[in-house]
Amino acid sequence: MLTHLPILQVIVPLMAAPICLMLRPVRLVWLFALIASAMVFLISVALLQQVVQSGTIIYEIGGWSAPWGIEYRIDLLNAYLLLIISAISTVILLSTHTSIQSELAAERHTFFYVAYLLCLAGLLGIAATGDLFNVFVFLEISALSSYALIALGNNRRALWASYQYLIMGTIGATFILIGIGLMYVMTGTLNMYDLSQRLPEVSDSRTVFTAFAFFIVGVCLKLALFPLHMWLPNAYAYAPSAVTALLAATATKVAVYILIRFIFSVFGVEFSFSHFPLQDIFLVLSLAGILIASTTAIFQQNVKRILAYSSVAQVGYMILGFSIGNPAGLMATLLHLFNHALMKGALFLAVGAVMYRVGGVQLSDFAGLGKRMPWTMAAIVIGGLSLIGVPLTVGFVSKWYLVAAVLERGWWPVAVFILVGSLLAVIYIWRIVEAAYFQLPAPGNAEVREAPLSLLIPTWMLVVANIYFGLDTRLTVGISESIAKMLFGVEP
Amino acid sequence: MLFTALAIARVKDLFAAVMLMGIYSLLTASLFVVMHAVDVAFTEAVVGAGISTLLMLKALALTGPHQNNSSYRSMLALVVVLISGALLIYGTWDIPPFASASAPIHQHVAPHYIQNSMQETGVRNVVTAILASYRGFDTFGELVVVFTASVGVMGLLAVTHPHDKYHDGDAAAMQQHLILRIVVKMLIPLILIFALYVQFHGDYGPGGGFQAGVIFASAIILYSMVFGSHAAQQVVNRTVIQILAALGVLIYGSVGIVSLLMGRNFLDYSALLPDPVDGQHLGILLVELGVGITVAAAMIIIFFSFSDRVVSEEVSPE
After folding, report:
1. In total, how many domains does chain A have?
2. Does the distance separating the beta carbons of B257 and A141 come in below 8 Å?
3. Is residue A159 part of a domain?
4. Is A197 part of a structural domain of the chain?
5. How far apart are CA B51 and CA B53, in angstroms?
6. What's the whole-model pTM score?
7. Chain A residue at shortest CA distance from B159
8. Is the pLDDT of residue B208 over 70?
9. Residue A211 lies in a domain
């Protein structure tokens, strides 16, 4: 069975979803989804081990070999992504049984889990596949299910937010499809590895140039790179908290993965950075994104919106990392993929706990919660410190490598921008802390108790991970260093 | 086509716009036929001109046929659209000429499919062989997309009020149309038989699970439009349909898992029977069946969810 791990990774949640639709009662559905997600997590750990030991794994689906059939090609980067997605999804699922009680109508709970598993399967499918069109198909699965997940919330505004996301997401998907179509026209293949072999012959043609442009813009819409981020704040703010945590921690990461995969493996560094002014464009957009999104975050009243804008800024850091164009920068991006998933997962889960107890996530709802919900608030503080990049947390690790990579190039002004971004983060995190610890409880908050353990445990699992991986960086740094070297074609 | 597209953008009456979109799809389908892509044309005709028009009409019944007047005009949007359009045209300059034999798409993967698919899969229609076997996993993914859509609609429009409140506006209005009722009654069995033919004939001619599922669903939808959704739901029960939608995906996936258990790769149909070619043929038939079931069920679910909304909205003021 070990040879089938790559496909089982995706098939387990994909098959679990329709089964969930037939199960009653909801508690069983939840348990089933949780088991499926935990299995996927174990598979991804095993896969990562296999890849570290024996290199890239190729799995031919349907027994047809590569350019004719579809293959899964798991190298270190894929395995790393699969691990992030499945780990975060499992931790979030631990909390959903409690958290969706207050945020979703009861008859929607089963559909929630079905859509959740489909979304998980879609994200994993993108991260595992070695086929261009297969990326698109699974992108559609994850996108459709996330529109549904966002709109399932009780908040009526979630519908509008989801609709905005649907329009933007569909435009993005169409652009990606146009890009794929044009690549196919020029090379006659849909396999990514095959494509990387055949593209250099035709790389001077206008069609490949256009294909690249459309594809990149499409993906940037999906990953909410400034200024294509307009859909994100509302979608994150009005979705059920568990959904926000899932999307913030995994969906944008997968889009970043697609970008890295195409820029570095399919088109190659040579084409992306010298035929195309991609480096400059990304550098400017990511810096603008960091500053503008962080500043906007400061003026928000809704804590989920604060964190959503902060996510846009964090995407900026990731893009900045690889637009530096050296292995160290790419390594910082990869580290931040993992680290940001931990921070935002922890923060949104903690905010979800507030939502469960208080029923709202405006800053005014947080007044005086430091005493009422000490553990939840402590989680927010640690997550926030990590977001700022304080030493001993994962945030520090990624900022450290990012600044080091920038300085390696001698780009002092960029390093200053990064520090200013961190200062802005201090301000918006401080506003939450101030409300929680230094304001008197709102009249309605006097009765509020600490969140139940079923919410606290998953939150604190991620908080502890924030600190643990901030101290012991061997795993993350080691893996991202070898991935960065692999993508730049440097022998490790 | 260009004129139709412009007309759709200009016309104020949404009912007319939906009809024009149906015409647009039909024109696209004819274009595909001219390009000898009959399978795609068939799908476009069934999905674009057929079922999506029906679904949009049902949605219009919910919202009313008039567009809200809005004076919103964004220059920025126009500029973005013009730039991407110009870029697209720019990109097409270097595409190899249409039907040129030396184009990369005819040189690399395609010859293998055309020469070997008959021996390897035992299926005469190359498109079906690619769709269901060579790239069967994509098709599985597409099927899950359809399933996801139906789950989304079910989740969002989950109906809570009890069934006995039904008050069928459609049916009452349709009572008078005697000719319509009789013609529909005669047509429905034919449509259903045609759907089954398309389903099982996919390996010889154009057709397959997707088209068959949609045609099958449109028969049920037609029945429900003329005789009221209450009558239709007595024929096809909601819970059953929901289980069927899941079942189709499960059939497809199980075929893959059976081949896993037989020691071959996922979706390697050769493992199903002792003779690999027979196994391929059987596998393709089974997965097409899965596709047909889920697609039909998903379409019916989406339609019912909308029409139940119409009913509940009509009931609520009382």
Report:
1. 1
2. no
3. no
4. no
5. 5
6. 0.91
7. A107
8. yes
9. no
